[in-house]
Design goal:
Order of helices and strands: HHHHEEEEHEHEHEEEHHHHHH
Helix content: 40-55%
Shape: globular
Number of strands: 9
Structural class: alpha+beta
Radius of gyration: 24 Å
CATH topology: Transposase Inhibitor Protein From Tn5, Chain A, domain 1
C-alpha cells in the first residue's frame, strides 16, 4: 500500500475524483454532433461489434452457422415531409412518414444480436445496400440461411442472393399469377382440421421476358387453417416435411419484431432534423440493446446461452430443424431490458 501511495497511483485517483469536471455546453456538444457523418456512426457500430464478438468468442460463443433476418424497420417522423431522409409508410403512431433503416439480426434465443443497420433515404438504392450488407455480415458470422420480409420476395432480390451464393426464404410479393394458383389449390386441396397440405413447384419471375431477365425459384404453398400462404426459396431437394419446417422456422423470424420493441426502450428521443444525428442515436440504441443481450449471454447457465446449438450439425436442414425443435424450457433473459436500462442510468448519473 505504501509503495502505491509513494508512486502516486492512489493519490492520482483520489485527486481525479476530487477535482471538478469540465462540462461542455449544449451548443458545443451539438456542434461536435453536427460534424459527424453517416460513415462515422457506421464505423463506431462496426468497431463495437468487432470487440463484442471477440468477447463472445472467448466465452464459448458457438458459430456453427446462423439464420439471419434482413428487414426494413421504420422510426416515426413528425417533421418536414420534404426532407430527403423521410419516406412514406403505413400510418403508425399518428404519422405516415418515417425514417427507414435496413437492419440485420441473428434469429436465435440467447444471441439475438443486431449485426448491421443502414439508413435508407428516398435516393438510396436498396438493392445495392442489401448486397453490401450481406457481404459485411459474412465478415461477422457464418450465414446458413437468410430470411427476408415480403417486400424482398421478388425476382430482383432472388437474383442478388443467388449471385452471392446464399440460401434464403421469403414470402412472395402478391401478383396476379398467385391468385390463379391460389384458386386452383382451393379447388384441389381439402386438408382436414388441424392438418395441412403443402405444395412445392417451380416458379419463374418475369417468365414473359427474355431468359436473361428470368429468375427461377421454388414456390411453396401452404394450405393450413383455411388459409393459403406462399413462400419462395432457392433451397431444392428438401422433403415435404423439411419444407414445412422451413416455413415454421420463418415464423420464428418474428422474434426480430421483439428486438425492435426492445430497441424502442433504449432509443433516445430527439427532435433533430439532422439525418446523421438520428442515425447515430439509432446506432447507440442498438449498441445498448446488444450490451443487454451480451450481459444475459455471459451470466446465463451454459446450457441456456445458446440452447439450440446442441441440435445443430453442419447441414442446412439441421439449422432449420433446430429452430423448430421444442426446448424443455422457455428461454428468458436473466435481466430484463427495463431493469438493464435503469441500472445503466444509475451508473452514468
Amino acid at each position: 500500500m505504501a509503495n502505491l501511495i509513494e508512486n502516486g497511483s492512489i493519490n492520482s485517483v483520489i485527486k481525479e475524483y476530487r477535482e471538478s469536471k469540465k462540462l461542455y455546453s449544449h451548443s458545443y456538444t451539438m456542434r461536435i454532433l453536427n460534424q459527424l457523418d453517416r460513415d462515422d456512426s457506421l464505423e463506431i457500430s462496426k468497431i463495437f461489434r468487432e470487440i463484442m464478438f471477440k468477447i463472445l468468442k472467448k466465452n464459448k460463443f458457438s458459430n456453427k452457422g446462423f439464420i439471419v433476418a434482413i428487414d426494413i424497420t421504420i422510426k416515426p417522423f413528425y417533421g418536414n415531409k420534404k426532407l430527403c431522409m423521410a419516406k412514406g409508410c403505413k400510418n403508425k403512431s399518428g404519422t405516415n412518414q418515417g425514417i427507414h433503416y435496413l437492419t440485420a439480426s441473428l434469429v436465435e434465443e440467447g444471441v439475438r444480436f443486431n449485426l448491421l443497420c443502414i439508413p435508407i433515404s428516398s435516393l438510396t438504392s436498396v438493392k445495392r445496400k442489401v448486397e453490401e450488407m450481406i457481404k459485411e455480415i459474412e465478415k461477422i458470422v457464418s450465414i446458413k440461411l437468410l430470411f427476408f420480409d415480403r417486400g424482398f420476395g421478388n425476382g430482383i432480390y432472388s437474383r442478388i442472393i443467388n449471385n452471392l451464393r446464399h440460401k434464403f426464404c421469403s414470402p412472395i410479393t402478391k401478383n396476379d399469377k398467385l391468385k390463379e394458383i391460389k384458386e386452383s389449390i382451393k379447388r384441389q386441396s381439402k386438408p382436414r382440421k388441424d392438418k395441412y397440405d403443402i405444395i412445392v413447384m417451380d416458379y419463374t419471375f418475369s417468365e414473359n421476358r427474355s431468359i436473361e431477365y428470368q429468375e427461377k425459384v421454388k414456390l411453396i404453398a401452404l394450405h393450413e387453417n383455411n388459409e393459403i400462404y406462399f413462400f419462395i426459396t432457392n433451397i431444392y431437394n428438401l422433403s415435404m416435411e423439411n419444407y414445412y419446417n422451413l416455413i415454421s422456422a420463418y415464423r420464428y423470424r418474428w422474434g426480430i419484431e421483439t428486438n425492435y420493441r426492445v430497441d424502442n426502450i433504449f432509443n433516445p428521443l430527439t427532435s433533430s432534423i439532422k439525418a446523421t444525428i438520428r442515425y447515430m442515436l439509432m446506432q447507440v440504441s442498438m449498441i445498448i440493446q446488444d450490451l443487454w443481450t451480451l450481459v444475459n449471454f455471459l451470466f446465463h447457465d451454459e446450457d441456456k446461452k445458446q440452447p439450440r446449438e446442441k441440435f445443430k450439425k453442419d447441414s442446412l436442414t439441421s439449422i432449420i430443424k433446430a429452430r423448430v425443435k421444442k426446448l424443455d424450457f422457455i428461454w428468458r433473459p436473466i435481466i430484463t431490458a427495463v431493469q438493464f436500462k435503469r441500472q445503466m442510468g444509475a451508473i452514468f448519473t
